[in-house]
Amino acid sequence: MKNSLLIGCGIGSCMLVSCTGNQKKKADMVLPQTPNVIFIVADDLGYGDLGCYGATRVQTPHVDSLAASGIRFTDAHAVAATSTPSRYSLFTGHYSWRRNDTGIAPGDAGMIIRPEQTTIADMFKQAGYMTGAIGKWHLGLGDTTGSQDWNKTVAPGPSEIGFDYSYLMAATGDRVPCVWMENQMVANYDPDAPIFVSYSTPFPGEPLGREHPEMLTKLRPSPNQGHSDAIVNGISRIGYMKGGGKALWQDENIADTIAAKAVQFIRQADKPFFLYVGTNDVHVPRYPHERFRGKSGMGYRGDAILQFDWTVGQIMQALKDKGILEETLVILTSDNGPVLDDGYMDQAVELVGDHKPWGNFRGGKYSIFEAGTRIPFIVSWPTQVKPAVSDALVSHIDLFASMAKLVGETVAPDAATDSQEHLATLLGTDTAGREYVIEAASSLSITDGEWKYISPNNYPSYYEYTQIESGNSTEEQLYHLSEDMGEQHNVASEYTEKVAELKALLEQETAKGYMLE
Questions:
Q1: Structure pTM?
Q2: What is 32-190+248-426's CATH number, 1.10.357.10, 1.10.630.10, 3.40.720.10, 3.30.1330.10?
């Protein structure tokens, strides 16, 4: 970890690292060759949900401290406005909208990232890193949808795409099966309660939320949102499940479990490591530990933000305790924008008050408007990153190529084909960022940081159940973000040349492959 690598232009053959994307000259940087790298990826955390991004109703001291010691980006973007496609792109450096099977994964989905694909974990492993994935996954397990035997090892899984260790939610919090998977086997497996899962047919004798509301002791589903099937831990879910016994998680302990496993991984690591930590917070069903319940004044969603901040604090303390904080690059972000009512009656809407999870932007989770994909993004590395606020345009899609540059790995021509190397931007020695960012929801948009074009489609303009504007329209949309960050004024008819310019760039990208449905 103490070795150094001079990364620049023309400094010898070992520096000729080939990564896809723009090859701009950047200032030379002297970097440790093998820093530890941690990605902390929150779930449904909005741009305006953190104190360092302007929130005043909720306190996030650990995240704020991380931001104060590093770079807080103001124009950072996830690739998609929902979890599965966003994480797919982050791990693969490949736009999820180039495939038609990267939508929100059901709980029994097969692995969406295929073993033959190269992932960011593969890249780190090739560089000699120990690799781990803990927490929220939502990228499928097993070969094909519905083919898993949850009572045995489920493969393919994280180990087939580069992770040495994994401790993951089998799917996501609101979908069955509600068990942890440790290295692709059910953790704390109960042989007296074998697990069966179906997304088509209920199991006889197993109570359902819509039929037994008296059994919903912790949360009740919002009307007509589909979270009213199997009951686990006093909360009804999507999908049907039988069995599990002592392996079933307790929702109030999910954050504690994720934090404990992350800390354990850090403590036991005996060489440089890459660790992905996907928190369940602040995704539904929100039922925080009693330490946080009622503390925010904004209902369980606000309490879950406090819990997320605590998780960050636990990880950072573990790095300090081991004496490796100075040698560790931490990137904190969210998979997509925020949503209040996403399936459960947890008072998120009633108690939000003047808190703005979406910041000053329009839309939210599921939306092609900015709040759908503009997300918190913080980079901290005490010995290499100077505290700053950066307006550079950055995207999750570029983490693959940028991390490869960091550790001196060459990206194969058929890997991470959409990822560009912007390491200098991430570390604050360059402010150029990307030329443009592409975002995906029901359609595609493209922004150069000043202007944003949204392609037309025939999908609904408003999602009634989540009370979010989708951004969909049958007309072309153009917004001057530098003057209208709230996307209130469509100026496509006034700036036809700008429409043509951004549309041409988007068509240039989609010509390489475009399968969004």
A1: 0.94
A2: 3.40.720.10
